[in-house]
């Protein structure tokens, strides 16, 4: 506590003085509302809403609203808020963080401000750390809200767009931080307003607020689409890095070069967790990959892959930072120790770790939308939170989020004893002391929870403990499935639990055991749910349905389902049976001293240590805690442990003798403060960068919102046309000397949509009548005439929708590219610091320059699309389409066009297998362990592929030239498991500008796929995406080329059929885009084997290019160019 706080008190003390009188007002109203009938009490909700409509504020009605909610909770839930819980609720309403200890009932506390703020009708979001808590709290507390006349929504994974929209429209919505954040991003990717799910960000209550707003603050929410597959490069780089020698240092000195401090190929800075190639390593890389300069621009991708690979080997440690499970690399949360399934390291680090561990390397993804939790939660008009450990991060909460901390007193005095740290010379000595303390507690019947910082260290300690007893449990990310069971037993008499910091947050260890868990365990043992679901054959009951029914056994959701009601009745019977024995054992544990917490290492953050201590002494129970440390621990080693070690050597203290000195403890806390401060600065620095993107994000999303709201943007589109033309004229017609104006460049720039070949051919005499403004006006008038003609043709409503479509598509496409460009800029911007420039300032300047360029590109591409777009069928309504389809966490069914539900069709053909328990269509019953073996999707897909080849051989006009080629096939992951889906990717190639052949192929492919799928009782999903336009050959130019080549080589010397043979699409699709911009003709020059009489096509493996062909080609093209120039000058 600082001197100022000692003299004037902390913010929390001052705030409590203001809150306590309000708390007393709430408590004083208890008799008034206690006397009301249920009907009268429920009617207060409508009365409060009426008072707000008449001008009263939430603060005005707070005492009465809290008192009503408190009385309703007693009648509905059988729980009445304690005075300290009312105090916590007031703090939450005032937009503060309520710091409340474990077991103080934060779930119930949140009902008070949630009810009060929901009366405004703007919606309240209650944010939890996982889906289980969101579901439990929404059902449990939902009874209270519904009884009071409010609606409750729940957002969890797997919900479609309609269900999410309904949940957000409720008065109070529960969900996780991930779901709320992803929904915000998805809302800003939809193409119709009707597909948006959120309705604003009025008020949020964040549970475990330090975990979400501090620990995960730097975590970007990213919606991705499929990107480039560079798995082979990761594998090559991994082989290379395995040959390198690693050098580890504690901290790199700024004034000493890396090479002087390390003799390896790359150096690892443990303190800052960075890796750097040395000069020797760079030379090896250049030799291995045969490049002259690794730092050259063309080798940036290779250098990036090498950087990520050495980081994977040097910094990222298995069973500490991640685990490998079921062939996947899964991140372990640094602060909670839990597996973060579905999360991936960014910038290719995850792929580098996958290469290191020898598992399948996933394809890299393209970022479609992104935001950090910092910026997402700062959008709320009012924000508050709850946690048991926030004071150590008070500065960050205040500076970043404007949140102050109110430390709410406990309902009962804390009886836990926190003993001073015991510091040992070596890790071995520390572990021996821990084992000794554990066995002493076990002997006395006192339960022990041993906290470790990693999976690896928890397993080392478990092996040592096995020499003394096998009666203990280990809780870490490797066996997280048993978390509920282990935590439930951790408070039993004499129990020993070794855990990572998984046991430090979100767990409630009950002394004597957990009656709820024991009741469910008995239900499992007697197969109660299996007998309910399948009385005739309990062994065949669906395991997933069994688990869902067990979850509902102590659930709170309202239901009429007979199975759920029966499960709840049996659960209540067993709970009543076990509760008396549990209570008796709890008394014995209290007599033995309660839960003893042993910490085996200090964490970087004091919060994590405090969370571990907080597992003991809940709700006034006795307990104790002590940290056992060694001078070899990371924190001690990195922050001055060598000085203490030399002191212990001088005093000849052995490794089994501890030091208990307040000075050393203070040193440790000082080191933790330094690390907390450093981490805060990192997060604050990240926010500075993200603020740049956030400002740009707001502009872009605001532009999208105008389109989605259906605003008339025609004036804005006309303004874009004007600005684009003025900008282009200023660029190409600059200067006072009109003879130097680049009319050709201006003509080519607008070729095909505003200009023709006949435009801008002026003589010197014409220059007197020309002006830049005049030409700009002429182009603008021409553009407006095109738009007006379209509006006459299609009608005003269709034209307005076309304007929205063009702007929306161009904004989305350019914004996604801009996200990638900004990310690349950020990766290298830190190097500006060497030039005495602030990287953040440079990032801001260049970032907004890039943003201006993006806006210019949006302006031009939108106008060009609007001028050139045509409807395929007159009178048909145009449809908006998403530029890119999200994958992974970013995908939600039903977020496409209005009325469309289902999964995204990201592949041409997908065959989906029928359900495992569905009857086999062959009529022969089951097939042993593979009930649907006769209709696996691989067979169905193969039949589709064979049938599709018939299109090529029988149905297409050879002169029309259209062919479908299957180039990629994926199905399944294991050789002995029938997959659920099979995917085929292919390409349609036609020489058909009118797209008639393509339309035929589209129709027949869909018919074939659906027909085969029906025969196999599967489903087939077919999607086509336009990629390359058809080649357009300029007929006059082709005629000239034929004449010139005949003059040069003689008649019959070359086959000119592809050049002019009556088909306007002749030529290579490689130049298709070019052919739509400039007059084009395409020819192939290749040599056949004249002796054998063969002339091979350009794709034949025997085609040979030799010097004579190169000379011939050079001469031919030079001759044609000279002849054409001679004729057209």
Salient structural properties:
1129 residues, alpha/beta, seven-stranded parallel sheet, globular
Write structural notes for this entry.
By secondary structure, this protein is an alpha/beta fold. The chain is built from 43 helices and 26 strands. The strands form 6 sheets. It has a 7-stranded parallel β-sheet with strand order 3-4-2-5-14-1-15, sandwiched between helices. Strands 16, 17, 18, 19, 20, 21 and 22 form a 7-stranded parallel β-sheet that branches. Strand 21, helix 29 and strand 22 form a beta-alpha-beta unit. The longest helix has 47 residues, at 662-708. It is globular. It starts with a helix and ends with a helix. Mean pLDDT is 79; it is low at 252-259, 896-933, 953-960, 1056-1065 and 1089-1094.
**Rg value:** 36 Å
Secondary-structure class: alpha/beta
Record field, number of beta strands: 26
Q: Helical content, roughly?
A: 40-55%
Mean pLDDT: 79
| Envelope shape | globular
Question: In percent terms, what proportion of residues is strand?
Answer: 5-15%
Number of contiguous helices:
43
Secondary structure layout plus pairing:
Layout: H1 3-8, H2 11-28, H3 30-34, H4 38-42, H5 44-53, H6 58-76, H7 83-93, E1 97-99, H8 106-109, H9 111-118, E2 124-128, H10 131-140, H11 142-147, E3 152-155, H12 161-168, E4 172-176, H13 177-187, E5 203-207, H14 209-215, E6 220-226, H15 231-241, E7 246-249, H16 258-261, E8 266-269, E9 274-277, H17 279-288, H18 300-314, E10 322-325, E11 328-332, E12 339-340, H19 349-357, E13 365-372, H20 373-377, E14 382-387, H21 394-401, E15 405-407, E16 415-418, E17 422-424, H22 427-444, E18 448-451, H23 455-465, E19 473-475, H24 483-489, E20 496-499, H25 515-525, H26 528-533, H27 543-553, H28 562-591, E21 595-599, H29 606-613, E22 622-630, H30 634-638, H31 641-650, H32 662-708, H33 714-732, H34 743-749, H35 772-794, H36 796-829, H37 839-868, E23 909-912, H38 937-955, E24 962-971, E25 981-990, H39 996-1015, E26 1019-1022, H40 1035-1049, H41 1057-1060, H42 1072-1075, H43 1107-1128
Parallel strand pairs: 1-14, 1-15, 2-4, 2-5, 3-4, 5-14, 7-8, 16-22, 17-22, 18-20, 18-21, 19-20, 21-22
Antiparallel strand pairs: 6-13, 8-9, 10-11, 11-12, 23-25, 23-26, 24-25
Helix pairs in contact: 2-6, 2-7, 5-6, 6-9, 7-9, 15-18, 15-19, 18-19, 25-28, 27-28, 32-36, 32-37, 33-35, 33-37, 35-36, 36-37, 38-39, 40-43
């Amino acid at each position: 506590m600082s001197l100022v706080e000692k003299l004037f008190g902390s913010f929390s003390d001052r705030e409590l003085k203001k809150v306590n009188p309000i708390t007393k007002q709430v408590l004083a109203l208890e008799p008034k509302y206690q006397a009301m009938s249920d009907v009268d009490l429920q009617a207060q909700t409508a009365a409060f809403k009426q008072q707000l409509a008449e001008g009263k504020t939430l603060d005005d009605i707070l005492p009465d609203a809290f008192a009503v909610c408190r009385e309703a909770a007693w009648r509905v839930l059988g729980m009445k808020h304690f005075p300290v819980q009312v105090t916590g609720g007031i703090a939450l309403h005032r937009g503060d963080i309520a710091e409340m200890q474990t077991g103080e009932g934060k779930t119930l506390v949140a009902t008070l401000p949630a009810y009060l703020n929901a009366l405004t009708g703007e919606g309240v979001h209650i944010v939890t750390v996982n889906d289980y808590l969101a579901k439990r709290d929404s059902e449990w507390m939902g009874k209270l809200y519904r009884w009071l006349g409010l609606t409750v929504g729940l957002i969890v994974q797997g919900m479609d767009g309609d269900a999410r929209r309904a949940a957000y429209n409720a008065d109070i919505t529960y969900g996780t931080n991930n779901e709320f954040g992803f929904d915000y991003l998805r809302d800003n990717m939809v193409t119709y307003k009707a597909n948006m799910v959120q309705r604003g960000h009025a008020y949020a209550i964040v549970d475990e607020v330090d975990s979400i707003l501090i620990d995960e603050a730097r975590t970007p929410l990213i919606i991705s689409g499929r990107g480039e597959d560079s798995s082979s490069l990761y594998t090559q780089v991994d082989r290379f890095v395995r040959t390198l020698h690693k050098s580890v240092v504690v901290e790199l000195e700024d004034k000493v070069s890396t090479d002087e401090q390390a003799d390896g190929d790359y150096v690892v800075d443990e303190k800052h967790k960075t890796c750097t190639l040395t000069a020797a390593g760079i030379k090896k890389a250049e030799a291995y990959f045969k490049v002259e300069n690794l730092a050259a621009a063309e080798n940036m991708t290779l250098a990036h892959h090498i950087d990520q690979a050495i980081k994977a080997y040097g910094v990222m440690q298995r069973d500490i930072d991640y685990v490998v499970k079921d062939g996947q690399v899964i991140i372990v949360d640094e602060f909670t120790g839990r597996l973060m399934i579905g999360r991936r390291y960014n910038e290719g680090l995850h792929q580098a770790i996958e290469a290191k561990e020898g598992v399948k390397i996933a394809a890299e993804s393209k970022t479609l939308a992104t935001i950090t939790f910092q910026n997402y939660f700062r959008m709320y008009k009012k924000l508050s939170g709850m946690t048991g450990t926030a004071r150590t991060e008070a500065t960050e909460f205040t500076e970043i989020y404007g949140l102050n901390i109110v430390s709410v007193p406990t309902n009962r005095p804390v009886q836990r004893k926190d003993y001073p740290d015991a510091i040992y010379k070596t890790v071995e000595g520390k572990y021996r002391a821990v084992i000794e303390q554990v066995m002493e507690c076990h002997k006395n019947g006192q339960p022990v929870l041993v906290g470790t910082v990693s999976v690896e260290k928890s397993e080392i300690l478990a092996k040592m403990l096995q020499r003394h007893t096998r009666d203990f449990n280990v809780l870490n990310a490797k066996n997280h499935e048993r978390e509920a069971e282990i935590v439930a037993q951790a408070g039993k008499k004499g129990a020993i639990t070794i855990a990572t910091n998984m046991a430090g947050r979100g767990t409630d260890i009950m002394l004597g055991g957990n009656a709820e868990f024991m009741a469910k365990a008995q239900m499992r043992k007697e197969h109660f749910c299996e007998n309910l679901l399948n009385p005739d054959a309990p062994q065949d009951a669906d395991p997933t349905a069994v688990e869902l029914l067990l979850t509902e056994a102590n659930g709170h959701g309202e239901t009429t389902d007979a199975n759920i009601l029966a499960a709840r009745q049996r659960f209540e019977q067993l709970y009543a049976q076990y509760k008396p024995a549990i209570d008796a054992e709890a008394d014995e544990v209290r007599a033995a001293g309660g839960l003893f917490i042993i910490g085996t290492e200090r964490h970087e953050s004091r919060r994590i240590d405090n969370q571990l201590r907080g597992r003991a002494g809940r709700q006034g129970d006795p307990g104790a805690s002590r940290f056992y440390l060694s001078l070899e621990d990371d924190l001690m080693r990195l922050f001055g442990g060598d000085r203490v070690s030399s002191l212990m050597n001088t005093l000849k203290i052995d490794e089994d003798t501890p030091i208990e000195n307040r000075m050393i403890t203070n040193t440790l806390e000082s080191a933790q403060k330094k690390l907390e401060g450093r981490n805060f600065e990192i997060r604050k620095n990240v926010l500075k960068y993200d603020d740049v993107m956030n400002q740009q994000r707001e502009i872009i999303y605001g532009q999208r919102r105008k389109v989605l709201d259906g605003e008339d943007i025609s004036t804005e589109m006309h303004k874009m046309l004007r600005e684009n033309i003025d900008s282009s004229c200023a660029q190409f017609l600059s200067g006072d000397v009109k003879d130097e104006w680049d009319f050709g460049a201006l003509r080519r720039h607008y070729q095909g949509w505003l200009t023709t070949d006949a435009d801008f051919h002026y003589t010197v005499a014409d220059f007197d009548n020309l002006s830049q403004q005049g030409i700009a006006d002429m182009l603008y008038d021409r553009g407006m005439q095109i738009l007006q003609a379209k509006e006459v043709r299609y009608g005003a409503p269709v034209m307005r929708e076309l304007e929205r479509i063009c702007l929306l598509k161009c904004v989305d496409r350019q914004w996604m590219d801009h996200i990638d460009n900004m990310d690349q800029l950020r990766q290298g911007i830190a190097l500006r610091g060497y030039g005495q420039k602030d990287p953040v300032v440079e990032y801001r300047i260049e970032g907004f320059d890039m943003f201006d360029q993006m806006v210019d590109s949006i302006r031009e591409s939108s106008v060009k699309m609007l001028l050139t777009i045509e409807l395929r069928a007159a009178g048909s309504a145009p449809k908006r389409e998403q530029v890119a389809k999200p994958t992974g966490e970013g995908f939600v069914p039903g977020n496409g066009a209005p009325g469309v539900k289902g999964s995204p069709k990201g592949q041409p053909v997908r065959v989906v297998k029928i359900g495992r328990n569905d009857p086999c269509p062959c009529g022969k019953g089951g097939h042993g362990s593979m009930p649907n073996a006769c209709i696996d999707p691989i067979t169905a897909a193969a039949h589709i592929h064979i049938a599709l080849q018939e299109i090529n051989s029988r149905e297409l006009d050879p002169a029309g030239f259209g062919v479908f080629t299957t180039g990629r096939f994926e199905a399944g992951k294991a050789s002995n498991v029938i997959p659920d889906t099979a995917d085929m990717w292919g390409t349609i190639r036609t020489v058909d500008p009118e797209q008639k052949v393509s339309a035929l192929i589209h129709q027949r492919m869909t018919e074939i796929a659906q027909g085969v799928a029906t025969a196999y009782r599967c489903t087939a999903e077919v999607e086509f995406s336009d990629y390359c336009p058809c080649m357009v050959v300029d007929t006059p130019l082709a005629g000239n080329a034929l004449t010139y080549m005949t003059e040069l080589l003689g008649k019959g010397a070359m086959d000119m059929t592809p050049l002019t043979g009556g088909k306007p699409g002749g030529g290579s699709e490689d130049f298709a885009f070019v052919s739509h911009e400039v007059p084009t003709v395409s020819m192939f020059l290749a040599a056949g084997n004249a002796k054998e009489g063969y002339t091979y096509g350009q794709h034949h493996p025997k085609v040979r290019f030799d010097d004579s062909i190169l000379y011939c080609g050079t001469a031919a093209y030079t001759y044609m160019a000279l002849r054409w120039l001679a004729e057209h000058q």
